[in-house]
Specification:
about 240 residues, alpha+beta, 6-stranded antiparallel beta sheet, 4 helices, globular
Length: about 240
């Protein structure tokens, strides 16, 4: 699947700086040329995922987080090979004049050893085989399971949060979704101070949507600059 005239306004997202996201996940979003093109892409990608899994002598299993290709499926020797998902959504329909907004996502090992990959895959949604594990059926035979939107996880102090707290001047973003807003907004600025896990940043830019998932960086009118104070776990590093 190549970027061409039928897939416009494409943007790579979910390529964060901090382990394991930046090492293993890749998400690409684009506006399709028409509904038929989007439907064709979904079918093509699902067929590709199945064929690649077969080539790697794996089997597709469907978990609550989505579809994983694994080796030695449903045994204690099971190992994840990759995760695949493709879907369409009308969330950014105002950017797509002709066709649906399509999201393509993979999680795979690039060059890390098996133990690092196995641990990262679990952080990114893979559940190893066990007596209590439950698999889910896909909506249709031969399709990838579309996991429901993830619920916000409790904020935890991560490597990224510690980095933000220890680096005044770092460029950071914070996302806010006011009641009634379909998209929310991302505010971007520089860390001014940090005390007891609270970050004060001088913010000078406001964008439509969450920059971690939005298809484009669309500036919206705002103040020239303002201070925003919030917990370090609320901020994320952005360029």
């Amino acid at each position: 699947m190549t970027f061409n005239e039928t897939r416009r306004n494409g943007a790579v997202v979910d390529k964060g700086i901090f382990y394991p996201k930046s090492e293993f996940t890749f998400t690409y979003r684009y506006c399709s040329d028409n509904p038929q093109q989007a439907e064709h892409d979904v079918v093509e990608y699902q067929t590709l995922a199945k064929n690649v899994c077969n080539i790697n002598q794996g089997q597709l299993i469907h978990q609550g987080t989505g579809t994983w290709c694994v080796s030695n499926a449903n045994t204690y020797d099971e190992q994840p090979i990759f995760y695949a998902r493709i879907s369409s959504t009308d969330l950014w329909a105002d950017l797509c004049l002709d066709g649906p907004f399509v999201t393509l996502k993979t999680i795979e090992n690039t060059h890390h050893n098996g133990e690092e990959w196995f641990e990262a895959a679990q952080v990114l949604g893979y559940e190893p085989y066990g007596a209590e594990r439950l698999l889910v059926p896909p909506a249709e035979a031969g399709t990838l399971h579309q996991a429901p939107p993830a619920q916000p996880a409790p904020a935890v102090v991560s490597e990224e949060s510690l980095y933000i707290s220890a680096n005044p001047g770092a460029t950071v973003c914070i996302f806010d979704k006011p009641p009634g807003s379909p998209y929310g907004y991302t505010y971007r600025g520089q860390v001014q101070s940090s005390q007891n896990g609270i970050i004060r940043a001088l913010v000078s830019q406001k964008y439509k949507g969450d920059l971690r998932t939005a298809p484009a960086q669309e500036l919206v009118p705002w103040h020239e600059q303002a201070y925003i104070t919030a917990a370090s776990t609320s901020w994320f590093v952005c360029s």
